[in-house]
Description:
The chain is an all-beta fold. It has no helices and ten strands.
Amino acid sequence: SKLSGTARVRFAETLPNFDNYGSQQGEDTKRNEEQSKSADFTVQYGGASILSLEGLANYTKVDYSRNDFNNRERKSHMFGGGVRYRPGGPWTFGLTGRRTHGEYPQITSGTGETALADEYDRTDLDLIAGYVATGKSNFSMRLSKSNEDHERDEERDFDGWTGALSWR
């Protein structure tokens, strides 16, 4: 009764936004299909107790139908773990660490030539808070200290704060 978990596999095909991804050439309206595959796994030990332990894993792969988007294709896998604290009442607090290893299989150099794969490593430390306002409404917040280092495309490196705020 203290062990629980979820497994979710997702296959999706969508049309990405028709924005220009920062280029000065104007809006791009050519058809481009984004195919994504992901698998998420979560395991939790502790049930409804005050403290519980959590383990996380994820695999994601994103491909595009247009060859000129090859440099945006990516794949990654993530592992993480943390602790949740439920002091009673509507509040939940947590601390989670995540480690991601990923790859952009093809990157384009400044001269337009295709280079080798750009592998990256990312570390996130998440502070989490949740509040269940009613049976139909809850709030959640995540504040993360994130660091991402790319092997080849250093313009994608990131060291800073990220976060999310949601109401469901």
